[in-house]
Automatic annotation (TrEMBL):
<dbReference type="InterPro" id="IPR036812">
    <property type="entry name" value="NAD(P)_OxRdtase_dom_sf"/>
</dbReference>
<dbReference type="InterPro" id="IPR044500">
    <property type="entry name" value="AKR5G"/>
</dbReference>
<dbReference type="GO" id="GO:0016616">
    <property type="term" value="F:oxidoreductase activity, acting on the CH-OH group of donors, NAD or NADP as acceptor"/>
</dbReference>
<comment type="similarity">
    <text>Belongs to the aldo/keto reductase family.</text>
</comment>
<keyword id="KW-0521">NADP</keyword>
<dbReference type="InterPro" id="IPR023210">
    <property type="entry name" value="NADP_OxRdtase_dom"/>
</dbReference>
<dbReference type="Pfam" id="PF00248">
    <property type="entry name" value="Aldo_ket_red"/>
</dbReference>
<feature type="domain" description="NADP-dependent oxidoreductase">
    <location>
        <begin position="26"/>
        <end position="259"/>
    </location>
</feature>
<keyword id="KW-0560">Oxidoreductase</keyword>
<feature type="site" description="Lowers pKa of active site Tyr">
    <location>
        <position position="76"/>
    </location>
</feature>
<dbReference type="InterPro" id="IPR018170">
    <property type="entry name" value="Aldo/ket_reductase_CS"/>
</dbReference>
<protein>
    <submittedName>
        <fullName>Aldo/keto reductase</fullName>
    </submittedName>
</protein>
<feature type="binding site">
    <location>
        <position position="109"/>
    </location>
    <ligand>
        <name>substrate</name>
    </ligand>
</feature>
<dbReference type="InterPro" id="IPR020471">
    <property type="entry name" value="AKR"/>
</dbReference>
<feature type="active site" description="Proton donor">
    <location>
        <position position="51"/>
    </location>
</feature>
Amino acid sequence: DLKGTFTLHNGVQMPYFGLGVYLSEDGEEVANAVNWALQEGYRHIDTASIYKNEAGVGEGIRQSGIDRQDLFVVSKVWNGDQGYESTLKAFEDSLNRLKLDYLDLYLVHWPVEGKYKETWRAMEYLYREKRVRAIGVSNFLQHHLEDLLADAETVPMVNQMEFHPYLVQQDLIDFCNKNTIQYEAWSPLMQGHIFEMDIMKEMARKYNRTIAQIVLRWDLQKGVVTIPKSSKKERIIANADIFDFELAPEDVKLMDGLDRGKRFGPDPDNFDF
Ligand code: NAD
């Protein structure tokens, strides 16, 4: 059942499993991916204005015929739009492209120095005005969160971070858990590199599952929301087939132990976009 959810600190139910659409092309490609996912039982779609595919995501949602209230749609404010007024405008632009009248979750995409607190004030406004059911951040390390929390009126409901067996950041997960911030994984499949790992091939054989299913199941058992990306129908379907088996605790530990602090994406302390 793809309808498993985690409860955010404001009581909103966030489906544990979603579809990522970074690098899915706007138009037919992303619309099909979204529609196939929704037909399969996915209810959570993760896009961003910088992905330039919000229009196609909206198209896929409408093609699916599924009630808006049953969906969990996420977008993000891009770095160049950070600041108070510009965030409010970026939000309306995203809604217009999606052809929706609210979002379930809106995220600050990256912690842009000197800007993210003003951006957060705009996020709080959107939340107060009920334009969005939850607000959160992405790529915020502990020091960014501490700095934000010092002035925030609303604690972010979510922190979406690069997360996979080579980048666990357990201290950050613990910090988020302590502060009621739901942890969420981006690039859960290591942008495809997970499929090259011998140890993952072994685990897949052991459980008679695909490597993707093993790592996404690990996310679930660690309490981390996950949003694997694919635009291929068979993969979209297979990736989500993780609700009828369980990893033994020692295998969860084994996977935790693969951590080597290795990023495939940018460093939140040193990005230049
Ligand atoms: P991912 O780890 O989900 O990997 C996607 C890659 O794996 C694609 O190349 C896909 O073709 C391949 N793949 C998927 N299923 C497969 C399967 N079953 N077998 C073989 N290959 C398979 O990478 P991602 O897209 O970077 O991350 C997922 C989502 O996270 C994104 O789509 C986006 O929504 C989000 N994201 C957010 C940020 C952020 O800064 N907040 C950054 C990157 C990604």
